[in-house]
Write a structure and sequence with these properties.
The structure holds 2 protein chains of 2 kinds.
Chain A: H1 3-12, H2 27-72, H3 89-98, E1 105-108, H4 115-121, H5 129-138, E2 148-155, E3 160-170, E4 186-196
Helix pairs in contact in A: 2-3
Chain B: H1 3-56, H2 65-79, E1 90-99, E2 118-126, E3 141-149
Antiparallel strand pairs in B: 1-2, 2-3
The chains are: A alpha+beta, B alpha+beta.
């Protein structure tokens, strides 16, 4: 006899349940329970992985900013020149950011592609992470503008040089989770430092 | 009560107990890990701010204590998040302070010819009470950072006094 038919006959001859007794636990219920718990477990696991990746990425951005400040506040060209070496920053910090920022592109603030963003933000400050993401979202690059980080170095015109690494790196966790300002599938990277312009002449 | 009904109730109770055990453990693991990552992050950023402050203290000329103080304070406060530091949970309790012979107009060289450093220190507290992390990290974490910056042996004095007649002129002391 076919197994399916036999199960059907068993069900047909089953004793009626006593009043108040619950329906027996079915395999479907177990599957639904498992899927609910598994989703919860997965979200927790991804949140842990994401916070770990975020720490690595922001630490790399922190080191890049520290090195970038050292480069930016040096005189451009000669010891007599007091102009900060702003355009030298990107090349000097790129090796520090390239590997830790998994799958995220690192952009130069002075690249021709970012001319429109520079005009929008102005010459004396660096963009926020949301401004960077909005700009790339406008270009249709990356989901929600995520996946781009800008290395920015500016002179604020009041004797200070600012170096910043801002944008949204790629994340694994869905939006709305975590204690931070998550955007889409991105991890916020906002590291900046600002010092007085100086030269290292004697 | 029939044995079957008792067994069923036992299964329900078992599932509830399992959930009651597993859920807090999962929450503790997630909050513990995220809190630890945020703490490492804050420690790193705080150390960077002190490092940059130490470097900035050497930018003004030798002995220009006032300008050095302005520079290292500016570097420290503008490297930490200007909105209060790391989303408001990093509170500076002891502001940056730098000391060293350079700030007093002197470059003291040791036997190897290395100048005595300028040493900067600062302290802060990490307080997660305004974040969900405080469910687990309910205590205050104290951070302390220190950084040294070494001046060049050849720096210009802020103002070079005229040497007294017959006195020898030292290029490393203002």
């Amino acid at each position: 006899m076919d197994a399916g038919v036999r199960r059907g006959q068993d069900r047909a001859h089953a004793r009626p349940r006593a009043p108040g007794a619950r329906r027996p636990r079915s395999p479907g219920q177990a599957t639904v329970e498992f899927s609910l718990v598994f989703v919860l477990f997965l979200v927790c696991l991804l949140a842990i992985i994401d916070s770990w990746i975020w720490t690595i990425e922001t630490d790399a951005a922190d080191a890049a900013v520290e090195q970038g400040i050292g480069v930016a506040m040096s005189a451009e060209g000669s010891a007599i020149n007091t102009s900060p070496a702003l355009t030298d920053v990107y090349a000097s910090v790129l090796p520090l950011l390239h590997q830790p920022l998994l799958g995220t592109s690192v952009e130069d603030w002075y690249a021709p592609e970012l001319a429109a963003l520079r005009d929008e933000v102005g010459a004396t400050r660096c963009p926020t992470a949301d401004e960077v993401a909005d700009y790339f979202q406008g270009l249709g690059s990356g989901y929600d503008g995520v996946g781009h980080v800008v290395v920015c170095a500016v002179d604020d015109g009041a004797g200070h040089v600012t170096v910043a690494v801002t944008g949204y790196a790629i994340s694994f966790v869905p939006p709305g989770l975590g204690p931070l300002n998550w955007r889409g599938w991105g991890l916020p990277i906002t590291q900046s430092a600002s010092v007085n312009v100086g030269t290292y002449s004697p | 009560m029939t044995p079957r009904r008792g067994s069923r109730r036992g299964q329900d109770a078992q599932a509830a107990i399992e959930m009651a055990l597993v859920l807090p453990i999962m929450i503790v693991i997630v909050l513990g890990f995220v809190g630890m990552m945020l703490e490492l992050r804050a420690e790193n950023e705080f150390q960077t701010a002190v490092d940059l402050a130490a470097q900035a203290s050497l930018v003004p000329p030798l002995g220009d204590q006032a300008d050095s103080a302005v520079d290292y304070t500016y570097a420290f406060t503008h490297t930490l998040d200007p909105n209060g530091g790391e989303g408001g949970y990093l509170v500076v309790t002891s502001p940056i302070d730098c000391t060293g012979p350079y700030l007093n107009g002197e470059i003291s060289l040791d036997r190897q010819g290395i100048a005595q450093p300028v040493t900067c220190t600062a302290q802060a507290d990490l307080d997660f009470s305004r974040t969900p992390i405080s469910l687990l990290w309910f205590w205050t974490i104290h951070l302390s950072a220190s950084a040294d910056a070494y001046p060049s042996a050849y720096r210009q004095c802020q103002s070079v006094p005229a040497p007294a007649p017959g006195a020898s002129f030292s290029p490393t002391q203002c």
